[in-house]
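Bench log. Compound arrived from synthesis this morning; before running ITC I wanted a structural hypothesis for how NAP sits in the protein. Inputs:
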Amino acid sequence: MVKLKKEKMDGGGGETGRIRLHSFSGGKTMKKKDHQHTREEEKLREAEAGLQEMFRDMPYEIPVLLFARKNAKDPFVQAAREVIGVIRAVTPKITLNEYELDHDLARKWNIVRSPTLLFDPDRTRIRWMGAPLGEEGKTFIQLISMLGFRNSGISDQSRKILARIKTPRKVRIFVSVTCPYCPQQVVNIIKAVIENPRMISLEIVDIQVNQDLAEEYHAHSVPQTYVDDVLIARGAQPEELFMASLEKMEEQRIFIPDSDAEKLEADLVIVGGGPAGLTAGIYAARSGLDTVVIEGEALGGQVATTPMVENYPGLTQVGGKRLVDLLVSHALEYVKIFPGEEVLSIVPGKRLRIQTTRRRFTARAVLLATGAVHKHLDIDGESRLAGSGVSYCSTCDGPLFKGKKVVVVGGGNSAVTEALNLHHIGVQVILVHRRDTLRAQEHLQKALFESRIEVKLNTEVKKILGDKQVEGLELIDNRDGKTENFPVSGIFIAIGYDPAVELARKTGVELNEDGFIRHDGRHRTNIAGIYSAGDVEGGFKQIVTAAGQGSEAALAIFEDLSHPYWKNVKRDVTKD
Ligand code: NAP
């Protein structure tokens, strides 16, 4: 079931691309069912109305061609038909024609896989190998909108880069329907195809439907982007960084926009769109501050890839991505969000100057809610085989390991949650932990025990083995020093997080001895006008504490900027 919500999102496919697609799961108990049924129906109606509004004035027709194996009862073919059917029900501008793989048109377009979708193939070369389900449903709606309005919503900076590309580029991206990072990167590529259709073509490869192709490329993490078979990016990139990587045909890590780039003003710029940043956005905007949130990667931070959250008050059990969708929808009622845009620098001053990969902001205050990044084991084979069997995200990459044997490393909540998620996907999991007990919460340990997942305690991973992809691990029993070669197809590393403080460090924000941002009780850092909240501050790293810190920081910023009568001690951050 789907729900669509209007968004104030920048870069989401132009004016018309402001709709998000959410998926919902059914309720658990009979008692709740009737009530939920009505709610689901309401949501469906809302979704249809949202789609109708979105596509109402769409001027251009989009011929969609679906190629499928003869007599295919394949669920992916069915799903592709259904998703297209949903869109066709709200706009007459989409025509759907189905062909078998031995049809002349399949030969003409060199199509051998089922299902494969082509969109307006005489104008654009976009090929979708799989069904646009889950996270990819959002991409699909943006694609239709961009084609139907012939408006990609691309930034001026990106357009300039694309204009310099004068030779053909065949882009292939591997995605999974559960990957929250994938839509951002696929949309980047679609924009490039629409803006430069003569030079750029795109093949979207769903790894679950095309496992053999993923194996051939050793693409065991998503998204992975290739140009003419050269890997140019693992993960999602800010739009301009993708365009620069496409131009140079190798991954670019820095893009500084030209001096004529857009300049915007705000009271508060929040860096980071996780629970802390989004909550701060809601509180700051409701206090009256003109607030923006900038996020370089997937909105929601770590929560976006958390399979299941069971300790967020009010929601007994909610998928991490679903919780993020709720938080984002709520935040969008109040603030403008700039996704896929990386903050490069912050210059302190009376008005702080914030440079992103796309534009410049000036603001009276900045909140650093940059979260945390996963830790590495730092062992032989880890970086060499990253994306080829070494993974940090079971939500994204888990489906590719269905039926295979993998190790999850770690003994905390993350490791146990990842192990349970992989087990539920149908992966054969072994949890490897260096101590004789786990530190995960009792509740999770009980679930682990009940699922009969094998646990190897007192064991460390010394080496990751394999040439082009993970083939095994060298394990050591740390009680007797005995080593063994343990054959596996993958390793999921879940050994905690380090604070993401690179930007803070560059700006001159002081860190404490543990590497977290040093701050006072009102979330002020050592630099006037710069505040912090969430996992960059250390402490208990829970979604609910991050949200709490975000709200506190936003209220403190409001009081510092506005000097309300109820505060005796005033602190003018712009004059410190
Ligand atoms: P964590 O609690 O810090 O646990 C990290 C685990 O990895 C520990 O067991 C640690 O071993 C092990 N480890 C660390 N470095 C290692 C290395 N080099 N080699 C082998 N093992 C290593 O991290 P986390 O599990 O990611 O959790 C982080 C935070 O997120 C926690 O506050 C957690 O509560 C929260 N979280 C909550 C949930 C939930 O509520 N469902 C889910 C995920 C995360 P030692 O025990 O020996 O130190």
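What the model suggests: The pocket of NAP is lined by residues 306, 311, 377, 409-415, 417, 434-435, 439, 494-497, 540-541 (CB under 6 Å). The radius of gyration is 24 Å.
ITC booked for Thursday regardless.
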